[in-house]
Amino acid sequence: MRSSWTSLLGLANRAGKCISGEELVIKEIRHNRAKIVLLAEDASANTRKKVIDKCTYYQIPYYFVPNRLELGKAIGKEQRVTVAVIDNGFAKKLKTLVDQ
User: What are the tens digits of pLDDT across the range 39-60?
Assistant: First the structure.
């Protein structure tokens, strides 16, 4: 069964409100467009540090999700290590679902 956060992320992606891929996500964070960042638990130490440092500096909330396969599948792509949501509504709802 798909968890509710993956369904919501899929919906946000279809609405064009998701950015995936390390470099693109970092760019969204830098431009303060990212509202929430999801990071796979199995991301490399380097990627993890880079994304967390950027999120912390720009005060963007970030959450860990189980793995890159699940994150990729949620947005209908191959494996994804990080995804940024650039919509306030989706970000708010995602926070509540990922926190559970």
Answer: 999 999 999 999 999 999 999 9
Whole-number Å distance between alpha carbons of 100 and 16: 25
CA distance 19 to 85: 6
Closest CA to 11 of 98, 90, 95, 92: 90
Do residues 62 and 91 touch, judged by C-beta distance below 8 A? no
Q: Does pTM top 0.90 for this prediction?
A: yes
The two structure tokens encoding residue 92: 């708010």
Give the DSSP H/E element, type plus range, for residue 59. Answer: none
Cα–Cα distances in Å, from 7 out to 29, 50, 61, 77? Answer: 23, 27, 20, 14
Task: Tell me which amino acid residue 16 is.
Answer: G
Q: In 10 A of CB 16, how many CB atoms?
A: 9
**Residue 90 scores a pLDDT above 80:** yes
CA separation for the pair 43, 25 (Å, rounded): 14
